[in-house]
Amino acid sequence: MKAAMYLRVSTEEQKEKQTIASQRNFGERYFASHNMLVYSWYADDGVSGIIPLEQRPEGVRLLADARAGKIDTVFVYRLDRLGRDPRLILNIINELESLGVQVRSLTENIDTSSPAGRFLITILGGVAGLERETIIQRSVEGTNRLARNGAWLGGIVPYGYLVVGKREDSRLVVSEKLIPGCQISEAEVVRIIYGLAAEEHKTCQTIADHLNTLGIPSSHIPDENDPPRGKRLTTTSRRWSAGHIRNMIVSPTYKGVHQYGRRTAKEREVFEREIPAIVSIDLWERAQKALHDRQLADPRSSTATRPYLLRGLIKCGLCGLTYIGAASPPYKSTERIYYVCNGKGQLRGRYGAEGKKCPSKTVNAIALETAIWKDIETFLRNPGEVIEQLGQQMHLQMGEEEQLYDELARQQQAIANPG
Questions:
Q1: What is the domain count for the chain?
Q2: Within a domain: residue 155?
Q3: Structural domain boundaries, residue 364
């Protein structure tokens, strides 16, 4: 028998001390008591059980050795080490058996070659899936409970705040500490932004320019006595932009209402919780009204409803940002609409990081869209030429695909017969 053992543990199971070492110790005692030699150990540490075997680092090596005929039996501590989903477990077993490799569990009496054994595998796989879903549910319920009680459980800390305490005792507090190199705190910067917006009715771009002129960084600057846990540091240009200012103004966080779960990509409950406020509710609401009124009063806002044909489809060749639609007041009854790089009016992207605006040219939207519509009309009236070109491209792609399959077959043959 050319035996091997596959070990796997995920992050959740590591917390319960189901480590790779404990599985290996059990396997070593088992093999010693049965006078068996192990060809190799395959250990995926911290890998989720819902990831297919061929996408796991050690799973790839296991499959390669199985194809090369180096092993004929794979042992696991329990069946759920293969995966946490019944279909995934059965797929792994079927794939290994197609390579002439049997799967055996050290703690479960399962014969994968019999119908009864396969039925038992399905049952145990279902139990493994149920266990995983239960762990996830309990984890989510636990984190939601801590979050409702005010604990800060990770993520980017909002500008103007710091985290004090650890684990379930961690809390958001208003950051009144002076910013290194500036005689002002982050919380005071937030109050300035809301004051300029609500009381002086300044635009977001004007506020951003004002803060940049003062040399106030837009991201947290740590010092030795202030661990930057959860603070955004290097992913921004440290310069303020109109979009950054607007996002801060509309955020309910600064009036003391934090929306937990809103920023995660996972499906989970989003709820509001109370945190220390930096500005009053009255100031926050007046800032919202001023922002709304300015948008209505902006003569360019009426052009936002125009259906720009290439909106979001044009990329700037200089900085890589997207072109957006823009307009100027009509001149002698002539409509003036354009496509302009998103970094031309704001400090964004490659040039924004250097404190500059993108030097790209503005494109006449009417001329460009007229040319596009002309091409579309030509295709609709005479599609033959375009279809012929598409057919030629598909033929070339099919030839390339056949070459790739031939190369794949040669590589697999070389792996199976290394000598």
A1: 4
A2: no
A3: 299-374
